[in-house]
Amino acid sequence: MSTVLTKFDHWKHFLGERVKSAKQMGLSEETISKLAFEIGEFLDEKVDPKNDEERVLKELWDVGDTEERKAIARMMVKLAEKNA
């Protein structure tokens, strides 16, 4: 298993680098957040959490409505940016 997927700190850094690249390519905050939401939907449906942090995020995602999920996605983008 990739270290990026099993270590949450590595995952945050990995996401941060992707957000940084997206901004450099000219994507807006809104577009990045929409993509984060779509990725969250995919992960929720297709990927089993690999660590405690991912399990908490999945549980929050599962109980949230669409607007709350969008808020989680926006917060993950912010967290990723902080860890880039």
From TrEMBL:
Pfam families the UniProt entry points to: DUF3243 (PF11588)
Domain of life: Bacteria
InterPro entries: DUF3243, Uncharacterised_YmfJ, YmfJ/YflH_sf
Gene3D superfamilies according to UniProt: Protein of unknown function DUF3243 (1.10.760.20)
Name under which the protein is recorded: DUF3243 domain-containing protein
Organism: Thermobacillus xylanilyticus
Name of encoding gene: txxe17-ymfJ
